[in-house]
Amino acid sequence: MTRDILVRDPLWDTIRVDPVSIRIVDSPPFQRLRHIKQLGHAHLVYPGATHTRFDHALGVYHLARRALSLMAERGALGRISEEERQLIPLAGLLHDIGHYPYSHALEELQPDRIPGHHEALVGRFLADPDVGTALASVGADAAVRIEALIRGSSDSPLRGLVSGSLDLDKIEYLKRDARFCGVPFGEVDVDRLLHSLTVADDPASGRPEVAVHEKGVAALESLLFAKYQMFRNVYWHHAVRAATVLYKRLVGDAIDAGLLRSEELVGETDEGILFRIAERARTGERMQSVERVASLVDDLRNRRLPKRAGEVVAAELTEPAGEWIETDTPLKRRVEDRIAAELGLSDGGVHLDYPVKLAMFDLDLLVVRRDGTVSRLGPSGHAGLIGLPRVARELYRTARVMRLFTHGGRRSVTAAALAGLAALSSEEAGRRLDSGESFLEIGTLVRPAGPGP
Q1: For labelling alongside 222, which of 113, 123, 209, 296 has CA 20 to 30 A away?
Q2: Which residues does the chain have with pLDDT short of 50?
Q3: Alpha helix (H) ranges present in 349-414?
Q4: What's the rounded Cα separation, in Å, for the pair 355 and 365?
Q5: Where are the domains of the chain?
Q6: Which regions of 57-172 does DSSP assign to beta strands (E)?
């Protein structure tokens, strides 16, 4: 095929796809993305959120081509080779090629339970014969350079379009996620942002990189506020997190029960992984651990989610707090099972959840002032230019919530109990486990469960 094709998209209207990208889109690794939901289990809360990584990747590719076209019109790409420009849309197209089933959820497991972060898996998929052949038509080292762009290790002046504070991935997913969830939180002034992109020299190093003109700073603020609203109301919605902890538990238990190897998570689809686990549980040896996994799969498919027993906002905790709760580790699982016993539930009946996104409001990009001077906009903001970074910490702590979910029986736990739990260090948590001390001080910090969802 030597001509572009047109794809109709509900968000961006018409997406024009070039011949090299068509070959990539038609490859099995990319077609797999049709079967990975962009927002994991958010569709169990927002029924319209069934859009996929496939849709999103095409959207990022479209924004990359559009951004480069606008930058070229303004003469901002004079120092950038044609081959370098061609790599950016391809990197945008392929940036999610390594995603696990149900998107980011499994990356919250203990690192040794998964083969690596999805960006670390990119190389495996770029080595696919169909993808590799398509990329080789651009340049002999195109696959290597694209992987570096996706992993944020490239020295390309345009790397910020793929991985950075203002990368096109963020712009695309905020707009698309808000549209399909049916919420008004993802309003981003995309046109203003794209028209304000340029390339400028870092005053400190002299190296060229993607920059934003001062006229686009207000649009940048809209992007950051949209991200805050989406995390608070969609990505970290309590029922979305309940489904996420259930999914993580069933995958972890399936690995422990010998029903699944970590490597089998790579290259699988959403329903594919659930079918694989369920089928092996059905035909495997009837052990308690296997039966529990089968039950969890059934619960997830039928939206029988853990119930929110208690929660406390991060802003109400003394920092640092709850660091050992952020990742699913053996220590965390032991504490969960001890709390389950304290609440009169069986092992596996409690889930602690404290999602983390440290880079939610990270800013590190160049700003071209109206007088032509260039300055770096960092975490502390810039006097008279943008104030949001200075309140980013509080916004993050407001969006972030530590929760305790129960499965197999409704319970209610006070915020004070959770705050006390979060205040423990991992060493203190281990000592309490060994000594048999209560984690929730039942009778004073646990209240009877009331009615409600």
Answers
A1: 209
A2: 442-448, 451-453
A3: 388-399
A4: 26
A5: 5-234, 238-357+399-447
A6: none
